[in-house]
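The records we work with from here on pair a chain with its fold. A complete example follows; check for yourself that the lines match position by position.
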Amino acid sequence: MLTSGEIGRGTQGALRFLQRDPSAPFYFENSVQACLRSFWVMVLVAPLYALYVIISYSGLYVAADEIDIALVEALRYLVDWLLYPVLFYEIARHRRWLDRYPRYIGALNWISLPAMGLLLADALVANVTPMPFPMIFDIALQALLFYWIATTTRMVLGVNWLVAGLLLIVNWVPSLFLSLIVNQVLGVSTVVGS
């Protein structure tokens, strides 16, 4: 498990990417061991993700029962977390970025902790405020998350905005398709109430 010192350092480093602090990448060790250790963040984020799922589904009609939702969402969580590191490994191998792979994936893993806090806020806003504010807030939050990931990509890999944007698409599109599949499997359809 991660120590409180590791959690503090990882979170601080993740937030420094938003400030475009040149020291941000160096909050993350560039070793395979540190990269593998950063996947423990998945365990830290899991309860927050569970709360996010509960809040998000509270305003939706879902054909599936609670057990099916829990199983499908747990599987989505695992696949979504591991998919980009696998895809990016092949990209890094072809582009000769394997020397930066551990630090990059570690940084992205650590970004997930504060980012999940923002996603929780987004889900709460969607449930307690009238339209169109939730939609505006969601778009602003998505823009912030995209900027955060693209900035991290640029700073760790040393690439330009175009390449960072392309890698963001490689990261985001599979997650989008996974969400569409989950919604189809669970029978998510309409908003309940007014």
